[in-house]
Write a structure and sequence with these properties.
By secondary structure, this protein is an alpha+beta fold. It has helices spanning about 5, 35-40, 45-65, 85-95, 125-140, and strands spanning about 10-15, 70, 75-80, 100-105, 110-115, 120-125, 145. The protein has a seven-stranded antiparallel beta sheet, covered by helices on one side. A hairpin with a 4-residue loop joins β5 (about 110-115) and β6. α3 (about 45-65) packs antiparallel against α4 (about 85-95).
């Protein structure tokens, strides 16, 4: 198993409220849409609670298929936490601006959840994990996309 930092160097996918990456229009000298205002809107309660509820549902369903370890600090890991414990960790994340790490050991995949974002990041997913996540993410009305595409 890699260290957390090593995963950050690997290919990744994003589970998001948006279907694809928003272009950096400011860099291109254009001004389309209002991404930052809308992102801030979704980061406020109660909207962020709804987003994190969907993230929790995805992770709980994923845990039906894969054993995983969860850490709030990257050091103390809990294997297959009780559903209520995972829900509590996820619901506190946006309030505390915390970070959660979810490691699918058998697939060498890391999922990160940052309390100040409206997306989760999936590092080094296998095709098996991507196929499963695609179904789980769609069932929650969210999207999964690769920023390099």
């Amino acid at each position: 198993m890699c260290s957390i930092e090593e995963y950050f160097e690997k290919p990744y996918w994003v589970i998001d409220i948006l279907p694809k990456q928003v272009p950096d229009y400011q860099q291109q000298g254009e001004c389309k849409g209002q991404y930052f205002r809308i992102a801030d809107y979704y980061l406020m309660h109660p909207r962020i609670d709804s987003v994190y509820g969907k993230f929790t549902n995805i992770l709980l369903k994923l845990n039906c298929y894969e054993d995983f370890f969860v850490s709030q600090d990257g050091e103390d890991w809990m294997k297959n936490p009780a559903p209520e414990a995972l829900e509590t960790m996820m619901s506190r994340c946006p309030y505390e601006k915390g970070m959660l790490y979810i490691m699918l050991e058998s697939e060498e995949t890391l999922v990160t959840v940052s309390g100040d974002d409206t997306y989760m990041t999936v590092y080094h997913p296998s095709e098996k994990v991507l196929d499963l996540l695609a179904s789980l993410v769609a069932s929650e009305g969210l999207f999964i996309w690769n920023p390099s595409h």
